[in-house]
Design the sequence.
């Protein structure tokens, strides 16, 4: 009799874990992260409501430099709450309101790509969808290495998530967590205009913002809140974002002679040395940082970021 009671008790204990695992697979509810080089860049938490709408939060650095392809110089963090959320044909949309006067809102689409993987599309830009992986609740940002360039090409695409690692409520309510939450910027509440709009009107209109700016604000030289605003700017505005002009062509090795082994990661040349080595035949990526993509003689691709008098080799390998 005692053995039957023990077996019954064990079965009851197994039900929550099984339910959690089932909930984690195949739907967008839960916690998701963009992770690059073992660092967490963004964290999204998403929750489906009984009426079919969605709620969500976005934990992200308060300030960093980048252009949506590469990221560097992170500082602080902020937690932004979605103005509204909806779902259509398996795609969840969250609209995040402006976080400063004159800013524009962020409209994001989330679609499942696997049991523990998902893509996030930033509407209104030409950026490829970002790969997200499921992570446990309470996951924070970082750790970030000083001066390191985080390239989205190196983003984690395979999740190492295990439902058994999910913390219980007591672990999430630790004093450290409470202090971190107090230090974050208060979540921005949706504007009256955003609240009046029907939730289903946002899909699939990409040009719609969560709020209208009162006046055209100067474009910052680095991404702050509304961090990708201006990526789809007209060519006439692109020069104001801080891009470095392409240098005049100089005598250098032919493209067909370039190889990844030309660069020593431990002793990289300065920008002038890079120009002398590989010349000015490259593709300029983005509107913010000076990011150059070179084609090697064997068809491989090198992506290099130039910051002031230093260069960073993001990657060099197969296209």
Sequence:
């Amino acid at each position: 009799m005692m053995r039957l009671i023990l077996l019954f008790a064990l079965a009851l204990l197994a039900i929550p874990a099984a339910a959690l695992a089932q909930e984690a697979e195949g739907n967008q509810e839960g916690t998701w992260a963009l992770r690059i080089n073992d660092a967490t860049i963004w964290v999204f938490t998403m929750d489906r409501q009984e009426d079919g709408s969605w709620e969500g939060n976005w934990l992200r650095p308060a300030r960093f430099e980048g252009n949506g392809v590469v990221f560097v110089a992170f500082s602080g963090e902020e937690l932004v709450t979605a103005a509204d959320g909806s779902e259509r044909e398996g795609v969840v949309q969250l609209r995040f309101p402006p976080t400063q006067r004159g800013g524009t809102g962020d409209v994001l689409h989330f679609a499942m790509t696997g049991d523990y993987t998902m893509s996030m599309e930033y509407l209104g830009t030409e950026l490829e969808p970002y790969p997200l992986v499921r992570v446990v609740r309470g996951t924070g940002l970082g750790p970030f290495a000083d001066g390191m360039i985080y390239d989205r090409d190196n983003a984690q695409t395979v999740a190492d998530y295990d439902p058994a690692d999910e913390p219980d409520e007591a672990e999430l309510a630790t004093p450290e967590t409470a202090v971190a939450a107090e230090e974050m910027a208060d979540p921005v509440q949706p504007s009256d205009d955003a609240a009046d709009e029907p939730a289903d009107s946002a899909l699939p209109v990409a040009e719609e913002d969560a709020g209208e700016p009162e006046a055209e604000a100067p474009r910052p030289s680095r991404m702050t809140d509304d961090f990708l605003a201006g990526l789809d700017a007209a060519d006439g505005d692109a020069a104001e974002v801080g891009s470095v002009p392409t240098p005049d062509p100089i005598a250098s090795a032919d493209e067909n002679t370039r190889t990844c082994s030309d660069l020593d990661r431990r002793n990289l040349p300065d920008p002038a040395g890079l120009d002398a080595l590989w010349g000015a035949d490259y593709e300029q990526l983005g509107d913010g940082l000076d990011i150059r993509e070179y084609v090697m003689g064997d068809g491989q691709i090198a992506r290099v970021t130039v910051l002031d008098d230093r260069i960073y080799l993001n990657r060099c390998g197969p296209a």
In short: The longest strand covers residues 39-48. The chain has six helices and 16 strands. The chain has two domains: 11-202, 244-317. Residues 2-24 form the longest helix (23 residues).
